[in-house]
Amino acid sequence: MKKEISKGLLSINAVFLRPENPFTWASGIKSPIYCDNRLILTAPAVRDMVENEIANTVKKEYPECEVLMGTSTAGIAHAAIAASILNLPMGYVRSGAKDHGRQNQIEGKLEKGQKVVVIEDLISTGGSVIEVVDVLREAGAQELGIVSIFTYGMKKGLERLEEAKVKNVSLTDFDTTVEVAAENGYIRPEDKERLIKFRNNPSDESWIGE
Length: 210
Description:
Layout: H1 2-11, E1 15-17, E2 23-24, E3 30-31, E4 33-35, H2 44-61, E5 67-71, H3 74-86, E6 90-93, E7 106-107, E8 115-123, H4 127-138, E9 142-151, H5 155-163, E10 168-173, H6 174-183, H7 191-200
Parallel strand pairs: 5-6, 5-8, 8-9, 9-10
Antiparallel strand pairs: 1-4, 2-3, 6-7
Helix pairs in contact: 1-6, 2-3, 6-7
C-alpha cells in the first residue's frame, strides 16, 4: 500500500521530485523534493485512497482510539474526513493559543483521559508534531500516537520522535517514493542514490553536483 500511496502523491504532484533543479527550503537548505499534501484534497481518487488508508491505519495500529486530532493547518481536513469514515469525534490543535475568546489551543471537545491519535500530513524533523503531542498530553489526553501521510525518515526526526516516546505510522515515506519515482520515470534510476544521500544528511549539498 505504501507504493500505491506514493504513486498517487506523485501523480498529482503532491510530492514533486526535482533533483536537477532543487527547491530551497525556508531554512536555506537545498532540497530535491517538494511536498504539498494539500493537493490531495483537490484530487478525489487520491483523496479517497489516502483518507481510507488513514482510517484503516487508525483501526489497525490504534484500535482503542476515541478521538482524532489534526495538526494545524494541513492535518485538519484529513482528520475530519478520516473521523467521518471511522465515526469518531475530531478536533485540532492550533500552533498557538488564541488571544481572544476562550483562548483555546485545542479546538473541539476533549475530555481528560481520552485516547487520541494525531493526524499529520508531513513529518520532516518532527518538531511541530511533537509540540502538538505535548499540548495534548498537558491537557490530560492519552496520546496513542500519530498517523502521518508522508515522512522523510530523516535521522533528526526519528530521534526526536523516539526521545519524546511518540509512535508514528506513516502511509508512505521518502525512500518508498524515490523507488516508485524511479520505476515510473519521474526520475532517472541513477538519481536514487543522490536522493537518499540528501535524506541521510540534508545539510550536505554534495548530492547536487553528482
